[in-house]
Amino acid sequence: QVQLVESGGGLMQPGGSLGLSCIASGSIFRINTMGWYRQAPGKQRELVATITRGDSTNYAGSVKGRFTISRDNAKNTLYLQMNSLKPDDTAVYYCNADGLTGSLRSFNAWGQGTLVTVSS
Predict the structure, then answer these.
(1) Which helix (H) or strand (E) holds 106?
(2) Per residue in 78-91, pLDDT tens?
(3) Distance between alpha carbon 84 and the CA centroid of its chain, in Å?
(4) How confident is the model at residue 117, as a pLDDT?
(5) Nearest residue to 63 (alpha-carbon basis) of 7, 118, 6, 119
(6) Cα–Cα distance between 88 and 29 in angstroms, integer?
């Protein structure tokens, strides 16, 4: 009943910037924590950043100071602004959200992912 759709991935040169968006839709009463995760080729999926409904954030050490996570609760939308991109940022980026559906059932949803490639 809850769907997440990411957008904004693409190809960028090292040092460049890219912004990702994730829109949650469906039967949603409330979204609690949202987050971005990524999976690089040959690597396990890892946490990039999370943000609570009250805008408390947490970042992986590898992206802290370069990436900014934010959300618009009224729009059920999550953002990730990525600056000073490095080749090792190359990965499929996934959006995640947990909360309550319109029928007050807990949910944990994932998007399909959007590919970010950082290469010169």
Answers:
(1) strand 106-110
(2) 999 999 999 999 99
(3) 17
(4) 98
(5) 118
(6) 37
